[in-house]
Amino acid sequence: xxxxxxxxxxxxxxxxxxxxxxxxxxxxxxxxxxxxxxxxxxxxxxxxxxxxxxxxxxxxxxxxxxxxxxxxxxxxxxxxxxxxxxxxxxxxxxxxxxxxxxxxxxxxxxxxxxxxxxxxxxxxxxxxxxxxxxxxxxxxxxxxxxxxxxxxxxxxxxxxxxxxxxxxxxxxxxxxxxxxxxxxxxxxxxxxxxxxxxxxxxxxxxxxxxxxxxxxxxxxxxxxx
Length: 225
Description:
Mean pLDDT: 92
CATH class of the largest domain: Alpha Beta
Largest sheet: 5 strands, mixed
CATH superfamily of the largest domain: ATPase, nucleotide binding domain
Oligomer: single chain
Order of helices and strands: EEEHEHEHEEEHEEH
Helix content: 25-40%
Number of domains: 2
Shape: globular
């Protein structure tokens, strides 16, 4: 019983083969590549499958990070997971980057109470969500302006987690300076959370359509040439 786990939602290009019954990572790769996920991902997948001695037909499912994070990276990971799953009629579980960090925090930081996961969202925004010390989601993931994050924290918040934790200016302790959990944390998040394998962006894309080059729309009274 093994699950292929993919993460391309940030600067990392990562994959692992995970045995959920034994809670064991059979093989893992995590490369900080910045860009180029589409070109590198299947090579990383091949590496972990070979190391684990696994075949695609042996998989019982897949887990993939769905965001929030890099627009392009998220699409690459989700598309790859869907493609592998469709070809072999396997289920796909989506987990968020925030959930993966929450799992890593509970496993390694032993928070004394509710905590907030905070990752950079770009354009002056931070993606945030609160979790209990038992890793239950206490609210929905959302994007908030960076200068309002302190006001959005729960009064009982005991810890800040993620790569935007130090940007808040809070006296609360902070941990795990990453935009996503380790690939092992992503794998374990797949046991606790289950979303459809669809991108979660939380904000609009940076790119805008070049409407200045669009042709004028023909009016109803005009006939085609």
